Amino acid sequence: MAAVLKVYADRLSQPSRAIIIFCKVNRIDFQELTVDLAKGQHRAHEFTKINPMAQVPTIVDGRFKLFESHAILRYLATVFPGVPHH
């Protein structure tokens, strides 16, 4: 069984919301993991091991990690079957 896509996000972040909405609209299975920017959780050592830039959104797809919302959207549109090409 394939690993579920992990999306690290804070819903107050517009780029984070874009990733979440894209996944939902395209029926991509994902696990949303909240990173509370107001509480500084993006600076926690555990999170900076995943994303050294300490920014959301960030995705982890198996052993592959990616940050920057535009790059994430392009990746999701390319890798997941059934996502319409635009």
Automatic annotation (TrEMBL):
Pfam families per record: GST_N
Classification via InterPro entries: Glutathione_S-Trfase_N (IPR004045), GST_N_Theta (IPR040075), GSTT1/2/3 (IPR043377), Thioredoxin-like_sf (IPR036249)
Domain GST N-terminal: 3-84
PANTHER family associated with the record: GLUTATHIONE S-TRANSFERASE T1-RELATED (PTHR44750)
Protein name, UniProt field: GST N-terminal domain-containing protein
Organism: Triticum aestivum
